[in-house]
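Need tokens for this chain, all 97 residues.
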Amino acid sequence: MQTHPKSELTGNALYLLGEANYVEEKSDDALTAFHQLATTQPNHPKVAVASLKIGYILDDQEKTEAAVAALEAVVKKFAGSTVESQARQRLDDIRSR
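Here are the structure tokens for all 97 residues:
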């Protein structure tokens, strides 16, 4: 990843690292990987899902304001996509608590 930071393979590796940490409930490590993907490769195909997972993790960590902001950004940036509808659903869940 250090040799080719802009490679699509590096983006895939960051996404998979984030997913692995998410599944293992290592939320801070997952956030780091997903954020790194989103900031270093904003056009990578996995950025939408990574951005959604950032919102999920922040919600799971009970960082409600940050979660809402992240999920609203997903709705705006990825309008018309599957992740938009998933983000809207999570926002509805948060607001109904």
